[in-house]
Amino acid sequence: MRTAAIAGMGMYVPEQVVTNQFFDKLYKKDLGSFLVSQRNIRERRWMSEFQSTSDLALPAANEALKKAGITAQDLDLIIVATDTPDYMSPSTASILQYKLGATNAGTFDLNAACAGFVSACDTASKYIMADARYNNILVVGAYSISKYLDFKDYKVASIFADGAGAAVIQASQSGHGFLASELYTEGFYHDHMGIYDSLLAFPKRIPPETNGLHWPRMTRNLLERLNKTPQDVAHFFITQFNVQSIYETLDRLEVPREKAHYIMDRFGYTGSASVGMALADACHQGKLKKGDLIVMLGSGGGLSMAATALEWNYDT
User: Fold this and answer.
1) pLDDT over threshold 80, residue 89
2) Element of type H or E holding 10
3) Which of 57-66, 173-182, 270-279 bottoms out in mean pLDDT, i.e. has the lowest?
């Protein structure tokens, strides 16, 4: 049976390291203690004034291609998940296609805010399973939010960061790969958080328990369809905005908190890139084994959520 599986992962973060002490000095208050205890953030990376979203996506994509053992010429499709594109139009995916030299690949962007990477992986897997012409698809979650930060709002400016995570999703006959997915939106919250008037803002308060309620619900929905339980899941990769929401989710699912992989301590919150970056980082650490059951959960402005379950295809 033809399935869609991840064949290689990559990630990239800019060189500029911004520690919590930067914000302590900037705002003349102890933000670092809160950021460490409540957000698990110690430092983050910001892009230079000369970098764009496609510049972040390119090295992540190249690493994913190398890990998958293919070249850019082998790609049939490129999907870039971002809400911080290089331009309003054309797509950032078309720019990335040019920079990679992926002349055989079609392209489009996908904007599901911070749920983008998971949504794009779901889209790519369905292309492969539905149409035999698609065999190699590059998915990149990329986020260049630092240029949209409003430094009058220290609660927002101190959390967000830049980066990119990439996956090559490939047709497979192994039986491993993407198993089930679920998308969920509460459009009522469309004006509660987002990039408004060229600045990242949270005009209204989204209930803090929202992710902690919906992530477990969506996870259980996926697993019930697979006749699995949360205890069968080897690893969770979850939007890295609020570590307390991740803890709440895993506690509700009655699984150890160590089953999630965490990167915000080093990289801050990287939005549409965060789940892809977390997955790539776990691969760098050799955490994933062939046959591992994995759940990815994304959540972002809109309010958009995406969940997918997959069986890992190779030892990292």
Assistant:
1) yes
2) strand 3-12
3) 173-182
User: Which helix (H) or strand (E) is 59 found in, with range?
Assistant: helix 53-68
Question: Strands 293-300, 304-311: parallel, antiparallel or unpaired by DSSP?
Answer: antiparallel
Token digits of residue 249: 């989710």
Q: SS3 for 32?
A: helix
- 3 state DSSP class of 49: coil
- On the question of pLDDT at 209 being above 90, the answer is no
105-129 pLDDT, tens per residue? 999 999 999 999 999 999 999 999 9
Write down the pTM of the prediction: 0.96
- pLDDT at position 174 is 82
User: Judging by DSSP bridges, how do beta strands 235-238 and 3-12 pair with one another?
Assistant: unpaired
**CA 285, 4, 108: angle at the middle one, nearest 5?**
95
**For residues 56 and 47, is the Cβ–Cβ distance under 8 A?**
yes
Q: What is the pLDDT of residues 221-235, one digit of tens each?
A: 999 999 999 999 999
Q: Which long-range contacts (CB under 8 A, 24 or more apart) does 202-211 make?
A: 202/153, 202/156, 206/303, 208/242, 208/245, 209/248, 210/299, 210/303, 211/239, 211/241, 211/242, 211/245, 211/248, 211/249, 211/299
User: In the 8-state DSSP scheme, what is residue 89?
Assistant: S
Other C-beta atoms lying within 10 Å of the C-beta of residue 187? 9
pLDDT in tens, 130-152: 999 999 999 999 999 999 999 99
- What is residue 307's predicted lDDT score, i.e. its pLDDT? 98
Domains of the chain by range and CATH?
3-172 (3.40.47.10), 177-311 (3.40.47.10)
DSSP 161: -
Sequence-ordered strand ranges (E) for 13-143: 16-19, 43-46, 77-81, 106-110, 136-143
Cα separation, 290 vs 302, in Å, equals: 35
Task: Please write down the HEC assignment for all residues of 228-289.
Answer: CCHHHCCEEEECCCCHHHHHHHHHHHCCCHHHECCCHHHHCECHHHHHHHHHHHHHHCCCCC
